[in-house]
Amino acid sequence: MSDTNMITETDLNAYVDGELDPAKRAAVEAYLADNPAESERVAAWRDQTATLRALYGHVADEAVPSRLSPHRLVIERRHRMMRSVTAIAAALVLVVLGGVSGWVGRGLTTPNLTEATLVSEAEAAHALYAPEVLHPVEVSGQDGAHLTKWLSKRLDRTLAIPDLSSAGFSLVGGRLLPAATSAAALLMYENRDGSRVTLYIVPKAGAETAMRFSSGGGLTAVSWQAETLGCVLVGNLPRETLLGLAKASYGSLDSASAI
User: Fold this and answer.
1) What is the pLDDT of residues 156-181, one digit of tens each?
2) Any residues with CB less than 8 A from the CB of 62 and at least 6 apart, and which?
3) CATH of domain 67-257
4) Which of 27, 103, 132, 204 could disulfide-link to 3, CB 3.0 to 4.6 Å?
C-alpha cells in the first residue's frame, strides 16, 4: 500500500506547521499532488496561518497556554463531535425499535452534528480571543454603528448588536471570522470584574430551536437557532448568568431579523 493512502488530517496539519520529517513530508506532498481538493484545503490553512502570524507577530515569542494548544482544541472538538454522533445514533435506534418517533422527538435535546460544529467553532474563537489584552477585537464597541453595518453586510443579515449593559456587560467590540460554510461575527462583552463572554453568530436558514447548554474545557456554551441566524454565547460563568445574557441577546437579534 502506498504511503499516500495513509495520510491523515493530523499529517496535513503537521505538514502546514512544518513538523514532519523529510520522508513523511515527501509522502504528504505526493498525496497533495494526487488530490487537488486536499491541496486547496492545505493552501487555505497556510493562508490562514500567514494571516494570523501577520496579525499577532508581536506575541510570537510568548509561551502559549496549554489550554490554547491547537492540538488540544482539535482533540476536544473531535470528542464533542463523537459524543454528538453517538447520541444521534442512539436516538435513531429508539425510533426504529420503539415506533414512537413523536415522543422521542419531543425528548431529544442533544445538538445535531451541524450545531455541534457551530459550538466547537464558537468555543475555539472564545478561547483564542477572550484572553487577548491588546487586540481582542477588530472594531471597538465605541464604533457601534460601523460595527453593525460592517457585520450585517458581511453576513448578509440585518444585525442589531445586543445591549447587555443592564446585565452588567459592556460591548468590547467585534470581529469577522471564517466559519465552516460562511463568515461569522464574534461579539465580545466584559463586566466590571473583567469576565468576558463572546457571542458567535453565523447566517443560517431553518426552524428556530430551543437554547441548549454544552460544557467543555472550562467553558459553557448556550446555543440556539433564530429565524435567520445560528448563535452561540460562550463564557466561564454560571449557567443562570449565561442563560440571562443569551435571552437578552436573542431578543435583540430576533427583533433585527424581523425588520
Assistant:
1) 998 999 999 999 999 999 999 988 88
2) none
3) 3.30.200.100
4) 27
